Amino acid sequence: MIRGACKAGSGPLLAAPLAACGGNWQSALDVYGTAAIGLKQLIILIVAVCSVVWMLVMIALIVALWRRRDAQAQAPEPTRERRMTVAIMGAVVATVLIIGTFTVMSFIATRALNVAGQDDLTIRVRGLQWWWGLEYVGPDPSQRFETANEIHIPVGRNVRLKLEGLDVIHSFWVPSLAGKQDLVPGRPNELTIRAERAGVYRGQCAEFCGMQHAHMALLVIAEPQDDFDKWANAQRQAATQPAEEEAASGLQTFLAKPCAACHTVRGTAAAGTTGPDLTHVGGRRAIAAGLFETTRGSLAAWIADPQTIKPGNNMPLVPLTPEELRAVSAYLASLK
Amino acid sequence: MNGPPTAPDTRDADIERTRLPSVLAETWKTPVGFWGALVTVDHKIIGRRYIFTAFVFLAIGGVLAALMRIQLAQPEARLFGPDRYNQIFTMHGANMMFLFAVPVMEAVAVYLVPLMVGTRNIAFPRLNAFSYWIYLAGGVLLWTAFALDMGPDVGWFAYVPLSGPQYGAGKRADIWAQMITFTELSALAVAVELVVTIFKQRAPGMTLDRIPVFVWAMLVTSFLVIMAMPAIMIASTSLILDRLVGTHFFNPAEGGDALLWQHLFWFFGHPEVYIIFLPAAGMVSTMIEPFARRPAFGYLGLVMALIATGILAFGLWVHHMFVAGLPRLGDSFFTASSMAIAVPAGIQIFCWLATLWDGRPVFKTPLLFIIGFVVTFVIGGLTGVMVASVPFDTQVHDTYFVVAHFHYVLIGGAVFPLLGAVHYWFPKLTGRMMSERLGQWSFWLIIVGFNATFFPMHILGLEGMPRRIYTYQPDLPWHGLNLFISLSAVILIAGFLLFFINAIRSAHFGEVAPDNPWDAPTLEWASTSPPPSYNFAMIPVVSSLHPLWDDRETLPVAAGLRTDRRELVVTTLAGAEPQAREASPRNSIWPLWAAIATTIMLIWSIFSPWAVIWGSIPVAVALIGWFWPKGTPEDES
Amino acid sequence: MRERIVLGLGRLPLHGMGAASVTWWGTLAFMLIEGTGFALAIAVYLYLMNLATVWPINAPPPDLLPGTLMTLILEISLVPNILLSRWAEQQDLRKVRVGIVIMSILGIIPLIVRIFEFPALKVSWDSNAYGSVVWTLLGLHTTHIITDVVDTLVLAVLMFTRHGLNLRRFGDVQDNAMYWNFVVATWLPIYGCIYWLARL
Ligand code: HEO
Ligand code: HEM
Ligand SMILES: [Cu+2]
User: Which residues cross the membrane (chain A) (predicted)?
Assistant: First the structure.
């Protein structure tokens, strides 16, 4: 569904050919990030060497079992025992050499994992049950803004993610871009990502975090610097006042009902912080941490019954009349 | 109760050899019927019971696995909601690790080690009875909670804060923590019994270099249990305290730390996997001899590899925490130590290959399982080496790649040898042979089904599928492989079913087994199949590593033990020279009372801290009853 | 298989003492388990201390008096304890009776001192992680004292019954004495941790 949008590849944000759309958009084997590309090479190399090791063991096993034996050979005989000892010593030496090489390779590759510096684009990523809170941090406080579940980054630049677990432990993982890193309460972590090509990359929480661990996805949208700047500027703005009547009444409902207690829509009185910032929710590709493509219909379905769609999540069912539901979803969809 | 069958101080040598068995049987007997089942301290009865129970847990844990595979066969399946699924995988993992894999290995040892070292009962037989009851109680607690929809749902390693007071609502995490207490208690008790049995009750002449490799493996394993389990005891106790009385061990807001839990858990959890694997490796080293028809190559190397693995096992735990954000330099140290364990593992593999190379293989079911083990375990070991690399692990940690790794090592590395061992020692356990035809069928189903089920999981993990997700969305390209895996699991499960059918049928109708059906060289085969209550009418005297191959007709023995009381020989630690004719305790109901009192205290303490105070009184009473001398001949000195 | 008698066991004693006794080894094994537990609990203390910016967290260091008194009493108790073990080895029932009564009393006194030790920590278990870990360390050690005291009391009663004059009982007394040494030995690092590390 969300993928479908990606395949269509239309719209100003997707002007660049979407490489990630060709293959798997969440895979350590289909890589478009600097870190992930390096990791893939390492993975392939180690897997290849290990495959050879396994094959050699298998050959030895097969020959050992089915080789022809001299009928008279009986009890263990010293010369044969000695020869086998030498063979085993040789195999042990080979093992030591291989694991030694692996260790050195790993050590070198590890040092290349986190490279972003202070002046790179910095995003605070907060893991919550079961969505991602995002805050773009600039040197200038007025440049800061909040969003959720959808990270935009400029292509070809290091992006520094400051990872914070706010409730339980989560893990930030967008395999096509980089390896994962946990978000541990009380212990902030960091991760550098850098996309080599424009595209939409999916990620998913990788540390079991409770009921809806399965539905805690996020999207990373890598785009050319200009597009990114345009997007960021738009995000900094407060929400536009609804023009249509239906949406306007939706805003009223939103403020009157408990919605506003948990969500923020900048530019309105809604300033809750328990749930994701909704200021530009209509412009995000997916709602409910990757569960549905954002449409008026999916928004309405979600609001009507969040607990059936994503059982256990922290959004309660807010009773609305059908008209109110229609109006609120129209309002939210209008928040581009 | 039962008085001495012969006059005080009658010696075995004074009795006619034909009458000796009946006299000893009277002294060592377990009363028939229900009462006998409750009071027995015979390591064979308890061992059999232990093994049986562990296999029951394997079967129901397997049912949970099947349920997970049905759910995951297609995207967005709604057979289970997240709440149930999370309980199911937690139960599967916790059940398989704590109620099946660790106990089953100790159970086999409870049965075999006393026979293999040529003694009449395990050391501390009453503790042995107690440990079984406690184990059973822990299992029943866990499964009852699951049946009541109170099963733990925090994963088998129950990371805080998810399992802590704030996020782990209800009593689910407490059940998990208390189940740990039960199983650790029983595992520790068995470990102590095994260490002392192996140190002090070996047959005269069984010097350190004449100990069968399986017994060595159990010795190393027991030390691992002794040194590793306290970590999880401390961890689970702290967790319960955090949840019940408001301590802050794991609360970062009050000076606690979430990663402290992970350190404590894995300081136990990593050795735990070798607690499962080393006995299996020992089984392979011991079983391979009759089927290769030669001594295992490199006895010293095999034993050293076990010891080296045991020591290294304590230096690896951080490799489960590579993405938790610890200092990178430290991580790299743990990469190196984890990789290093490939050396002792390799030495064992190479020695087994050499044994087969030089031997004359007999292709019976146990050997098939050994072959299946080598094929599969090496894959699992190599993927272990892969995930031991920090950068590699940042991509596959907590994905199906890791699920594949640990099933390869757990099932391929431990369950395959175990199944081989069941076929191999079945005659000693039951007096009957297992069907060779069914055995081979089940082997092929299991090995094919296993690899088809778990190999594709490596690919899924690399393709980005995290573990512990109750479902996945259709726009992710995982459904093809998942369907394939679920269908393959049917073959695997069919293989296990056939194995169970074979075992149950053979136990009743199998061909009656001779004493030593495989022409095996170790002492347990010198006894009858199954062995009498006293194991050996006279204690064997050992002069080599393969006593039954030195002389297939006669068994050198020692005479002079009393027959009017339960008596066995205590020997020196290294040289196995006789030191004393020690008494071995009689049947007793007290271990059961102690276990019941302990169970009440532990379950009660899930709900109130006062349980620890009031509940300990009946425990103390039961223990006093247990140890109070009853004035039987065993009390003489 | 046919049996061939190659060894006579008839002259062996009916019960071995010390390293020839299985209970001695069993006690040793349990001491290893518990020693590992203590070591890990201390490791937890050090870990949390290392993590904290100030230590102790929101509390003054514990009062030295009760803990130091405890240490003294435990150290002093070693003297009769070792004597008792020696008398048991010599199988001197009269002296063992006297010794075990003394050891019972010397086991109960520390429990009384312990009652004053908990408040001297000046922090509650539920105030913060520091409070949690010191209470746990102290609690862990207290359970060991209690276990040993109960064991000593039961043995004391046994020594005055007809079961007393028995090699096994003397062995039990020795094992019990060894365990008390262990309880005293484990106290020292815990004492250092709780009372002195908090003053660094
Ligand atoms: C029986 C159980 C068992 C065994 C034997 C092993 C064996 C090994 N394991 Fe595994 N493991 C086991 C059970 C588990 N492991 C886990 C997870 C796990 C992780 C963490 C992964 C992660 O969470 O991201 C690492 C790094 C390893 C490493 C290893 C290594 C290096 C070995 C080595 O011992 C393997 C050595 C064997 C080898 C290498 C093959 C034979 C050697 C030959 C043939 C010589 C030639 C070899 C070379 C040249 C390399 N394991 C988990 C997951 C826990 C969880 O998260 O739920 C479990 C249950
Ligand atoms: C019939 C054979 C088996 C099948 C089909 C199977 C299947 C699975 C699957 C699919 C998972 C992943 C669940 C998830 O992440 O959502 C899993 C987890 C696990 N399995 Fe198995 N399994 C089998 C046997 C075993 C055995 C024999 C053991 C142990 C000896 C074992 C130990 C574990 C453990 C420890 C976990 C991790 C649980 C957790 O994440 O908390 N499994 N198994
Ligand atoms: Cu490990």
Answer: 42-66, 86-109
